[in-house]
Amino acid sequence: MKSIQWMQEIQKLVIVTVGALFLAASLNFFLIPANVFASGFTGVAQLLASVLPISTGILLFVLNIPVAIVGWLKIGKSFTLYSFINVALTTLFLELLPVYEFSPDILLNAVFGGVIAAIGAGITLKWGASSGGVDIIALILSRVSDRPVGIYFFVINGLIVITSGLLFNPEKALYTLVTLYVTSRVIDAIHTRHVKLTAMIVTTKAEELKKAIHDRLTRGLTRLPAKGGYMADDKEMLMIVITRYELYELKHVLQEVDPQAFTNIVETAGIFGLFRKE
Q1: With bands split at pLDDT 50, 70 and 90, how would you rate the model's confidence at 17?
Q2: Rounded to 10 degrees, what is the CA torsion of 27, 141, 70, 268?
């Protein structure tokens, strides 16, 4: 079991490294040469680098240090650790890769930069980490204020768009909007941007799954009787609401306890009643 866990951690580290490389490539080869800005803290670092004599990579790293400390205390050690590793590697690759303009066409840079950044962010999210910054801040603020995480993404990215228009020209702001839109759509395709998800798990090992989910996710769940439509065998359906950051862990619980379980993941528009935020 320990050897399997070690292999999973190594795979996760490789994925986080590849994700960081994609993000750095999107910046140095497409977005930075065109003065088009990415979403979240990466975009904030780009904006600061345009007015300060400090590189985007260094600023991205510095901005994420206090966020990582708070995330370690408030969200979870594994998620925060791998997110910060992703940020550190992104900084390293930003310093190593040259800033090179493949095309003078600003629209091509906006689209391809957004797609490549989204691939990096999407695969990182899929393996239980993030690109740091806004993801962690928005999750903490959502827990404190009980407002949706999406509001904080909207506000921060809106400020990036407005600032880019003020620093350069309105056209840059519009192309930044193109990048943000492309990024969100590609991440949707790879993973999910939706904050809360409902998992409906049909299984013959309900008791074992319940214990494993409680141990690994500390989430409540509802057990419902179910019957197979073809074999007419007795089963149970476990219904659980999780955040997108817990989807990776839930997948591993299912693989370890009951790989044959049928699981349907759907987006959750809203929740009323008890839902653990800490």
Answers
A1: very high
A2: -80
**Cα–Cα dist 278/214, whole Å:** 14
- Extract the tokens encoding 35: 């003065």
Q: How far is it, in rounded angstroms, from Cα 40 to Cα 1?
A: 37
Alpha carbon 182 to chain centroid, angstroms:
15
- Two tokens, residue 268: 């959750």
Q: What is the pTM of this model?
A: 0.73
- Residue 243, strand partner residues: 196
- pLDDT band, very low/low/confident/very high, at 192 (cuts 50, 70, 90): low
pLDDT: which is higher, 101 or 186:
101
Return all residues near 223 (Cβ < 8 A) that are at least 6 apart. Answer: 206, 210, 236, 237, 238
Those residues whose C-beta lies under 8 Å from the C-beta of residue 53, and which sit 6 or more positions away, are: none
Task: Report CA-CA distances (Å) from 263 to 20, 199, 257.
Answer: 30, 7, 13
